[in-house]
Amino acid sequence: MKEKFCDLKDKIHNGERLNFQDGVRLMESFNLLEIGKLADFARRKKCGDKVYYSKILYLSPTNICVTLCKFCAFYRKPGDPEGYVIPVEEAVKLASNPDIAEIHIVGGHHPTIKLDYFESLIKGIRAARPDLWIKAFTVVELDHFSKVNKIPVEEVILKLKNAGLNSLPGGGAEIFSPRVRKIICPLKISGKKWIEIMEIAHNYGLFSNATMLYGHIETAEERVDHLLKIRELQDRTGKILCFIPLGCQPENHELKEAKGTTGFDDLKVHAISRLLLDNIPHIKALWTTMGIKTAQAALHFGADDLGGTFVNEQVMDEAGGKTRRGITTAILKQIVLDAGRVPVETNSGYGQSGINGNDKGGKADPAEN
Ligand code: SF4
Asked: Which pTM value belongs to this model?
């Protein structure tokens, strides 16, 4: 018989926190509709019927990487003829597109590019588009910049913030479990270090997202542990605006053990993220990895953000993401309306003021802040 979760329903309705055991029970359950109902209740308490989306340009300045994650189909090793580095002027020109509200910049860990390149990139974009929300660099990249330039990560953060950075995209978290990281990304910083650097960035005033890569070799317990560590970080800093579960794309990479996700699992993980992360305002259903139909369904399973239009999304293209370019904000709006929700076009700041006196709020409802 399927578990009804009456005790968890009481907790959620009384505003009590779910604990580790509650999370594992939910993660191991097949009662998707009951979990969805609970998540929809939690979601409505946060944002009513609103669903967010935005016009985003994705930019990967380089695909050359020395970190060699097993689940990644994007990187090329140094010396590979398919490796590239986009010159700063070209990247700034791409970002000057007047039709975008936000830029998302992540790339490979190039062994020799200096911080000056990334500082000039952010400064150039900020000068060309003072109103743009600039979301760039995972904390793993920040750690890499610190090592390449032999300077403390605090200095890296400060320089990029002063150049005009608004927020960090929250990638590189994968799953914090040391057991899993040793197998899927042995050269990446530990989960503990990821949290430490993110906390430093938050304390320097940067907003961020946070992510979890699921659907590879992780257990239910490891998923819940990851979610609760994110919740603890948010309790300390309050700077995470959005949590994004990222389903592992099983194609084109070395991690043959990765099984990938199912629609059932996608909906369950988004719903449980909403239930456990009671202190994070938004949960994103990324349609490029889930497919547009599952992402739309996720709007009734705890998610309130669909992501956005995706231009130049190389990382997920190479990993075999299900749904490609060509989606416009008009289509995203219709998808939201067809799900019976209220569309709100915004950017990753959800109406937050940008840093350095730049008010980059987009069109989000100020009530959300
Ligand atoms: S996920 Fe990022 S760090 Fe890992 S190999 Fe790919 S580009 Fe490099």
From this structure: 0.92
